[in-house]
Request: fold
Amino acid sequence: MEDTAAGPGSGGRTAVPLADLLRERPPMARELPSFDTGQVPAEPGPLFVEWLLGAVRAGVPDAQVVTLSTVDADGRPDARVLVLRDVDVERGAWWFAADADSPKGRQLAATPWAALTVYWPPLGRQVRLRGQVRTADAGRAAADFRLRSPGARTGVLVGRQSERLGGSEELAEAWREAAEVLERDPLTVAAGHTLYAVLADEVEFWQGARDGRHIRLAYTRNPDTSWRRGLLWP
Ligand SMILES: Cc1cc2nc3c(=O)[nH]c(=O)nc-3n(C[C@H](O)[C@H](O)[C@H](O)COP(=O)(O)O)c2cc1C
Reply:
């Protein structure tokens, strides 16, 4: 569908038109690492961990924050960032925690498929993966919850994530109540706190290059759970 109401050059009420400003800021205009696709592991998990640790070493803030994409009941995509909790390199499982009683939790209950995407700007590296989503058992979710900071636990216990909030006083009251519950019983676990794993069946490693010849390596899971890999056109 064509949008005739606006287009590059028509927006931006800045002194310099926004489209010009954006054009003058090409991404990845810096020295970027190389990516030797001949020296990669047979499975994507260890390579992901290597790239993640490389991003941490390169000082990428919040390098463990990834975008989770899901679809709603009407098949419309939805996305938000969240913290990656762990990677099970053997199973090819990427773990995150969320409230089952949140929009994303309900979307995953109805359609247990998701994509995770991460971009580490100083390195010009992107990883995208997708697959089926599974949940951990309640015991593991409870253990994860109890390891969280008091503030994080209170927030999850408050719940109602993404519902309309009437005002800050309403939130302050709910926060007080949840904090009291945790104070009375520090072992309390929020009912909806859930550990999810994306069991990736496709993982792509994307290394940007200043000259545009980006290097892309895709892993695809075979039916026997081994992986095959190959390069993609940039
Ligand atoms: C840096 C950062 C980290 C976040 N980490 C999480 C997280 O680990 N789990 C989570 O449920 N939401 C996390 N969020 C909040 C989500 O982006 C989102 O606002 C919230 O989960 C509601 O999403 P939903 O309405 O799609 O369910 C984080 C947000 C930011 C900016």
Helices lie at 18-23, 44-57, 103-110, 138-146, 150-158, 168-184.
